[in-house]
């Protein structure tokens, strides 16, 4: 990972970004094949910046990089949590915060966490009349991903939270929570340090359910591990018939599946069945609306604006060689945070639209605001200028948290 980091910086210094970076979003999308593949039904409107912002309490104190986040509705308010640090990468100055608001404009401070190492992946679970806040502790080396386990705190009242306590397994990274069928659901993974190794061991994805939010059991069968191989971040959606659809980020690579993503489905009472997808939908979020499964995840751009494959189909060299090649190609491309539609029958993914985003972006969360509307919170490199940096360059610069409105049908 450290060698890759050095090479990526060198590529950027030599103009390794996309040749089409100066194009406007409209021109880029018009040129891309994906832009005409599916008629656009949903729209993204009402963009506003939240972090940094005038409605925040002083305790948030944003640094240069504001990225990993989550949002949830609880007790008549919207709760927002985020990470602030000097840049995207691990370091001792990383800090997490939680705020709440009745109008999503003026926020009250709730709690914060700082331990002298990296903190990220903050997640909420509102279930059984309780609000829990989870997050992962990592190391301080900016060139390493060093999971040290998950922590959880519970809200007892306004600004009153329990001390964070260890949760589940020693290297566990909580990824997505949900509530379905009267149960809480959780998907996360262990052995995440293997994600950024050119010759890694397996990563284990766990899918759990709970009837009380405290005691967790395997969601499918008797084994909590539902995927084992190259997949780390995995989002899930529970369908009306009890089937589970999942999208997993396969960055470490896997024999028989290559690199990119795994798109999976488990029929009721059965295990996950997956297909390979050469695209990589980083930081995936799945939700069901209008009887359809929707995905929010990062989109990598070709120079013409179409969606780039992560797996480049290399025919020679070792798996380790492919890993290095694909990482470097990925880091020097431009990014968007996009809405996709997932077909549970074919396990295919179709691009729908790009949310307001550029540079270092995409760690989205949402809350419903009406029958066909969702408030989407996401982070991005600044959107008030014309700069559209490649992804790695964006990770070294400023990032902010924005709110937009996702509307299905005509706004």
Task: Describe the model.
With 411 residues, the protein is mostly beta strands. It has a single domain (2-407), classed as Neuraminidase (6 Propeller), CATH 2.120.10.10. The protein has 4 helices and 26 strands. The strands form 6 sheets. Strands 6, 7, 8, 9 and 10 form a 5-stranded antiparallel beta sheet that branches. The longest helix has 13 residues, at 319-331. The relative contact order is 0.16. Mean pLDDT is 90; it is low at 2-40.
Offer a concise description of the structure.
The chain is built from 4 helices and 26 strands.
Tally the helices: what do you get?
4
Mean pLDDT over the residues = 90
Major sheet characteristics: 5 strands, antiparallel
Uncertain runs are: 2-40
**Which term fits the overall shape?**
globular
Return the structural class. mainly beta
Number of E-state strands = 26
Fold topology:
Layout (H helix, E strand, L loop, with lengths): L1 H12 L11 H7 L11 E9 L13 E10 L2 E9 L9 E7 L6 E6 L5 E9 L2 E8 L12 E8 L2 E2 L3 E3 L5 E8 L2 E8 L12 E8 L6 E2 L6 E5 L4 E5 L5 E11 L3 E9 L6 E5 L7 E5 L2 E9 L18 H13 L3 E9 L4 E7 L10 E6 L2 E8 L10 H6 L3 E8 L4
Antiparallel strand pairs: 1-26, 2-3, 3-4, 4-5, 6-7, 7-8, 8-9, 8-10, 11-12, 12-13, 13-14, 13-15, 16-17, 17-18, 18-19, 20-21, 21-22, 22-23, 24-25, 25-26
Name some characteristics of this structure:
411 residues, mainly beta, five-stranded antiparallel β-sheet, 9% helix, disordered N terminus
């Amino acid at each position: 990972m450290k060698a890759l980091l050095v090479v990526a910086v060198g590529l950027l210094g030599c103009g390794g970004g996309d040749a089409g970076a100066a194009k406007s979003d409209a021109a880029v999308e018009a040129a891309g094949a994906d832009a005409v593949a599916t008629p656009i039904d949903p729209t993204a409107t009402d963009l506003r910046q939240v972090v940094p912002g005038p409605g925040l309490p002083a305790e948030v104190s944003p640094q240069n990089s504001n990225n990993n986040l989550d949002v949830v509705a609880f007790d008549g308010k919207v709760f927002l949590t985020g990470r602030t640090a000097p840049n995207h990468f691990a370091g001792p100055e990383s800090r997490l915060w939680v705020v709440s608001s009745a109008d999503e404009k003026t926020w009250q401070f709730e709690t914060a966490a700082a331990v002298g190492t990296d903190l990220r992946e903050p997640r909420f679970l509102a279930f059984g009349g309780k609000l829990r806040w989870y997050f992962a502790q990592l190391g301080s080396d900016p060139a390493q991903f060093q999971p040290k386990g998950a922590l959880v705190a519970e809200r007892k009242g306004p600004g009153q939270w329990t001390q964070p306590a260890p949760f589940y397994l020693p290297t566990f990274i909580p990824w997505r929570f949900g509530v379905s069928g009267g149960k809480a659901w959780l998907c996360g993974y262990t052995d995440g340090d293997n994600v950024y190794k050119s010759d890694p061991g397996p990563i284990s994805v766990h899918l759990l359910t709970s009837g009380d939010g405290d005691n967790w059991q395997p969601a499918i069968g008797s084994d909590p591990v539902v995927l084992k191989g190259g997949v780390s971040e995995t989002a899930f959606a529970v369908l009306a018939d009890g089937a589970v659809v999942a999208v997993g980020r396969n960055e470490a690579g896997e024999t028989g599946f290559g690199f990119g993503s795994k798109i999976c489905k488990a029929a009721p009472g059965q295990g996950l069945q997956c297909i390979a997808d050469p695209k990589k939908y980083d930081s995936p979020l799945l939700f069901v609306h209008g009887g359809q499964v929707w995905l929010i995840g990062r989109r990598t751009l070709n120079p013409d604006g179409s969606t780039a494959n992560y797996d480049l189909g290399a025919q020679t060299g070792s798996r380790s060689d492919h890993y290095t090649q694909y990482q470097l190609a990925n880091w020097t491309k431009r990014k968007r945070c996009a809405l996709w539609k997932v077909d549970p029958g074919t396990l295919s993914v179709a691009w729908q639209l790009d949310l307001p985003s550029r540079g270092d972006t995409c760690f989205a969360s949402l809350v419903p605001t009406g029958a066909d509307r969702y408030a989407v919170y996401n982070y991005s490199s600044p959107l008030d200028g014309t700069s559209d940096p490649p992804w790695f360059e964006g990770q070294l610069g400023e990032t902010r948290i924005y709110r937009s409105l996702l509307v299905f049908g005509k706004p």
